[in-house]
Design a protein that fits this description.
CATH architecture: Orthogonal Bundle
Distance between the termini: 33 Å
Radius of gyration: 13 Å
Number of strands: 0
Mean pLDDT: 87
Structural class: mainly alpha
CATH superfamily: Cytochrome c-like domain
CATH class: Mainly Alpha
CATH topology: Cytochrome Bc1 Complex, Chain D, domain 2
């Protein structure tokens, strides 16, 4: 319980450090609670989005591969903690989120 609280607290701190421009991808990430486990610049529970963008840069199938992970979940790529499936995210929203993630530097 204490660890979960610290993770949520850390996520809140990281969210407050992100510049909130009118960005559909960022707004969707906030609305779908993606920022509870991820941030743009720092690993929380899952990898930082800039690290995801760097890992998949230049890969032609990156968007489709990551959309599948958003929708179905995944494990083993970034460590032992699995990413759960995101039933609250539609396929169209997953594409918007992934395009935004892949645009991070």
């Amino acid at each position: 319980m204490k660890r979960e609280f610290l993770v949520v607290l850390a996520a809140g701190v990281m969210v407050s450090q992100v510049a909130f421009a009118d960005d559909p991808g960022l707004e969707l990430a906030k609305a779908r609670n993606c920022l509870a486990c991820h941030s743009v610049n720092t690993k929380i529970v899952g990898p930082a989005y800039k690290d995801v963008a760097a890992k998949y840069a230049g890969q032609k199938d990156a968007e489709d591969k990551l959309v599948a992970k958003v929708l179905k979940g995944g494990s083993g790529v970034w460590g032992a903690v699995p990413m759960p499936a995101n039933a609250q995210v539609s396929p169209a929203e997953a594409h918007t989120l992934v395009k935004w993630v892949l645009s991070q530097k």
